[in-house]
Design brief:
The complex is a heterodimer of chains A (about 240) and B (about 575). With about 240 residues, chain A is α+β, with helices and mostly antiparallel strands. Chain A has two domains: about 5-100, Beta-grasp domain (Ubiquitin-like (UB roll), Roll); about 105-240, Fumarate Reductase Iron-sulfur Protein, Chain B, domain 2. Chain A contains ten helices and seven strands. In chain A, the strands form two sheets. In chain A, strands 2-1-5-3-4 form a five-stranded mixed β-sheet. Chain A has a two-stranded antiparallel ribbon with strand order 6-7. In chain A, a hairpin with a 2-residue loop joins strand 3 and strand 4 (about 70). In chain A, helix 3 runs antiparallel to helix 6, helix 6 crosses helix 9 and helix 9 packs across helix 10. Chain A starts with a strand and ends with a helix. The relative contact order of chain A is 0.12. Chain B is of the alpha/beta class and about 575 residues long. Chain B is about 35% helix and about 20% strand. Chain B has helices at about 20-30, 70-80, 85-105, 135-150, 215-225, 255-260, 270-275, 285-295, 315-320, 325-335, 390-410, 420-430, 440-455, 465-480, 495-515, 565, and strands at about 5-15, 35-40, 55, 120, 130, 155, 160-170, 170-180, 185-195, 230, 235-240, 260-265, 305-310, 345-350, 355, 370, 375-380, 540-545, 550-555. In chain B, strands 1, 2, 6, 7, 8, 9 and 16 form a seven-stranded mixed β-sheet that branches. Chain B has a five-stranded mixed β-sheet with strand order 17-15-10-18-19, with helices on one face. In chain B, helix 2 (about 70-80) packs across helix 3, helix 5 packs across helix 15 (about 495-515) and helix 13 (about 440-455) runs parallel beside helix 15 (about 495-515). Chain B is globular and about 70 Å long. Chain B starts with 5 loop residues before the first strand and ends in an 18-residue tail after the last helix. Classes of the chains: A alpha+beta (about 240), B alpha/beta (about 575). The interface between A and B is large, with 60 and 68 residues.
Chain lengths: ~240, ~575
């Protein structure tokens, strides 16, 4: 492994900025976040980067490394041998400073999703096979990399029309809970804009938790919406079969 | 030059947005109070998210003989009886309710074949007791609370750092804080304040803790006159990653041993046989951590100074289902496939048992109107915490602190007054390092503090090491007054580190002073010069107070258990196991 690593890190704020180069000593097993910490401690104490756990549990350190949306804490420096490592903030959200972006829009949308409304009081009787799918969705660490990469949000900035994969997964998880009684299909079809997703699966590819966002979440929800709004007869038949 | 600042007024102000803070906020809001939560991170990112193994509660879903008495018994025994028994009693009784409530709010736990919440075995728990979701239980817990908060009438302030608490004639009056985004200050007047800011594992270099665990709330409360207790008790988790260097300290859940993982030294010996032949790998954390440390000291360690942990006999499918996070963590960060090969683990700083001294029922500190819950508070865990007890701790006492604050404001309705001059002075103090180039680098001061703590107040301690450590901390405290933060106020991590380091230095002094006074070995405190647990020290807790800027240390008697609780320890075995036990 090279003894010295070169990083080119975006420095700037809402008004603009540019990449700046830093050279730092390599360490075995180093991740990009370690490299940024080294820069903070020795070269640029005010370099802004958001992080918490450094163990891929919290989803704070989302960024773009050589053009790919990744967690800084999970990306090894030795994946980029003999390359300059370019680190930039997520593109889809406004930059606050350096690598830190304003992700508050996501929390606004999370607030607008009707909460879990169970039919009965806990303790519940639920089979593991019935909760496997929910648990898959609940692995989400809210890193918002899927939101960042979703082309509806990224390229078209259509945040007013589509709430993005994270919200689709949250709604899916509630809709698929065997004991939930609320209906969020109106929301999905309307304000949350599930129709805008055209299943390019970019979100699934980028998910650091390996959640099958498109196949297991968005497509079944699209089907539920289609059943309810566009296929009343088929919907009725399916209901009778249940 | 005085700052024009944003001003807020709340019934109850909660500082800290981890599990304890969010649970307190829900309780306070449900009681009709106007509530704000301040967190220095984004919502849902707090250190709670790192808890892996499970939440301990005697639901009795897999072992029907379990009950609150046995949970109480295990908790007191692991704490080596310097815990507050009242705290442990309400905790054991209320934990199951708090877990079920999470299910009601949308948490999805792993299930038993009958469809109940699954419970796994864990170190020093008599029964299988930890409700869990694979190895990401803390994430499930904080996500559930986050989702509840987002649909509850609570104002959440994200990425905001509180720097000082204010008093009005001895009663709590509020806090001042700055937004990390742009360094703008805001004043929060409040009738009651709940501190829920977690522990201070970042005092040590090798730690499983996230960056936030810098003890801010405990230090703020201490400066406002609150008492600290049991500060010498800092838990080493036996199993952190040890290689490569960048990941040293990251947690390897006790769930690996709970699911059958075996510990071996370099000679292939299951060495726990020597240290706890009955409970083996599932002994209490202090015992396992010392076992690994002693083996490495004796030259029987792994290449990087730890022990081998082996779970391969459970088979790849089972491991990937029950420990998916661990599987991925080792694959991604260490190039190790734990389904195929044993892996290296070693002790890592994990939890601070000590903290703010609080009432067992209301979580009130000695400062009127100031409450504390979760890792920043003390009393439940004594000299050593049981795995899984921290998650139930934050739920039980988060709620109790919220309720305690509600009750307080019912008797103290007026909004206290905060002195404008004091606020401005505090803002000037906090701003002083910003933009300065010449002075101490806060990152370097932090690193030095971590070295001092590791060398002088680590897993094994002696009186002379501790005395030297205290001297070095006091020197560093002087140097730290000159910390600088080049750059602007806008999201400036160097400046944020200045506040963190000041708070950690305050607490490190109390830790070392407590460790010097406790001239015995008990739980997490291992004194090479006093290797035995001594009866006289089992009767006292060490309490620290700030008096005229100086840390003063006193003893306080350990509350004595009433007869009916004492009898639980005289059955010859744990309640529920013993023939004469109440659970029979």
């Amino acid at each position: 492994m090279a003894e010295e690593i070169t990083l080119s890190v975006f420095r700037g704020d809402r008004s603009g900025g540019r990449e700046q180069e830093y050279k730092i000593p390599a360490m075995t097993g180093m991740v990009v976040l370690d490299a940024l910490h080294y820069i903070q401690a020795h070269q640029a104490p005010d370099l802004a980067v958001r992080w918490n756990c450094k163990a891929a549990h919290c989803g704070s350190c989302s960024a773009e490394i050589n053009g790919s949306a990744k967690l800084l804490c999970k990306t090894r420096v030795d994946d980029y041998e003999n390359e300059v490592i370019h680190v930039r903030p997520m593109h889809t959200f406004p930059v606050i400073k350096d690598l830190v972006t304003d992700v508050s829009w996501n929390y606004e949308k999370l607030r607008q999703i009707p909460a879990f409304q169970p039919a009965i009081n806990a303790p519940f009787t639920l089979q593991q096979r019935d909760v496997d799918r929910l648990q898959e969705f609940r692995r989400c660490i809210e890193c918002f990399l899927c939101q960042n990469i979703c082309h509806v949000l990224r390229d078209h900035d259509a945040k007013d029309a589509y709430w993005g994969p994270r919200m689709m997964i949250r709604i899916s998880e509630l809709q698929m809970h065997p004991l939930d009684t609320a209906d969020r299909l109106d929301l999905l079809k309307g304000a949350a804009g599930i129709g805008y997703c055209n299943i390019t699966k970019c979100c699934t590819v980028v998910c650091p938790q390996g959640i099958n966002i498109t196949e297991n979440g968005i497509i079944p929800m699209k089907e539920s919406v289609a059943d309810k709004y566009f296929d009343p007869l088929g919907g009725l038949v399916r209901k009778m079969h249940k | 030059m005085s700052e024009n600042i944003e001003s807020h007024s709340y019934d109850i102000l909660i500082i800290g947005s981890g599990g304890a803070g969010l649970r307190a906020a829900i309780a306070a809001a449900e009681g009709g109070a106007k509530v704000a939560v301040l967190g220095k991170s984004l919502l849902g990112k707090a250190h709670t998210v790192m808890a892996e193994g499970g939440v301990a509660a005697s639901l009795g879903n897999v072992d029907p003989d379990d009950g609150w008495e046995t949970h109480f018994y295990d908790t007191m025994r692991s704490g080596h009886f310097i815990n507050n028994y009242k705290t442990a009693e309400v905790f054991s009784k209320e934990a199951p309710q708090r877990v079920l409530e999470l299910e009601q709010w949308g948490a999805v736990f792993d299930r038993t074949p009958e469809g109940k919440i699954m419970q796994r075995p864990f170190g020093a728990h008599t029964f299988r007791r930890l409700a869990h979701v694979g190895d990401r239980t803390g994430m499930e817990l904080i996500r559930t609370l986050e989702q509840k908060i987002l649909t509850t009438n609570v104002d959440v302030f994200q990425e905001i750092t509180a720097t000082k608490l204010f008093l009005d004639n001895g009663r709590i009056a509020g806090a001042v804080a700055y937004y990390r985004e742009d360094g703008r200050f805001a004043l929060f007047a409040a009738k009651a304040v709940v501190i829920a800011t977690g522990g201070w594992g970042k005092l040590f270099k090798v730690t499983s803790n996230s960056w936030e665990s810098t003890g801010d709330g405990a230090a703020l409360a201490f400066r406002a006159g609150a008492e600290l207790i049991d500060m010498e008790m800092v838990q080493f988790h036996p199993t952190g990653m040890v290689w490569p260097p960048g990941v040293r300290g990251i947690l390897v859940t006790e769930g690996v041993r709970g699911e059958g993982g075996l510990l071996r030294n370099s000679e292939g010996e299951r060495f726990m046989e020597k240290y706890d032949p009955q409970r083996m790998e599932l002994s209490s954390r202090d015992v396992v951590a010392r076992g690994i440390y002693k083996e490495a000291q004796a030259g029987r360690g792994t290449p990087h100074g730890g022990a081998w942990l082996d779970i391969t006999h459970r088979g790849p499918e089972y491991i990937k289902r029950k420990l998916p996070g661990m599987y991925q963590q080792f694959m991604a960060l260490a190039d190790v496939d734990i389904t195929k090969t044993p892996f290296e683990v070693g002790p890592t700083i994990h939890y601070t048992m000590g903290g703010l001294k609080v009432d067992a029922y209301s979580c009130a500190t000695n400062v009127p109107g100031l409450f504390a819950a979760g890792e920043c508070a003390a009393g439940l865990h004594g000299a050593n915490r049981l795995g899984g007890n921290s998650l139930s701790d934050i739920l039980v006492f988060g709620k109790r602190a919220g309720d305690g604050a509600l009750e307080f404001i019912q008797g103290n309705e007026g909004m206290p007054r905060i002195d404008e001059g004091e606020v401005q002075a505090e803002i000037q103090r906090v701003l002083a390092p910003v933009g300065k180039e010449d002075g101490e680098n806060p990152y370097a001061i932090h690193e030095r503090l971590q070295e001092i703590m590791a060398d002088h107040a680590g897993i094994s301690r002696t009186g002379s090491d501790l005395e030297k450590g205290l001297e070095l901390i006091l020197e560093l405290k002087e140097r730290s007054r000159n910390m600088v933060a080049p750059g602007s106020r806008a999201f400036n991590p160097g400046w944020h580190t200045v506040q963190d380091v000041s708070n950690m230095i305050t607490l490190s002094e109390a830790i070392v002073r407590g460790a010097i006074e406790r001239k015995e070995s008990r739980g997490a405190q291992w004194r090479l010069d006093f290797p035995d647990e001594l009866e006289e020290f089992g009767k006292v807790n060490f309490v620290h107070k700030l008096e005229d800027g100086e840390v003063k240390t006193y003893t306080s008697p350990v509350p004595e258990m009433p007869k009916e609780l004492q009898e639980l320890f005289e059955l010859g075995a744990a309640p529920g196991v013993a023939k004469s036990g109440k659970k029979e």
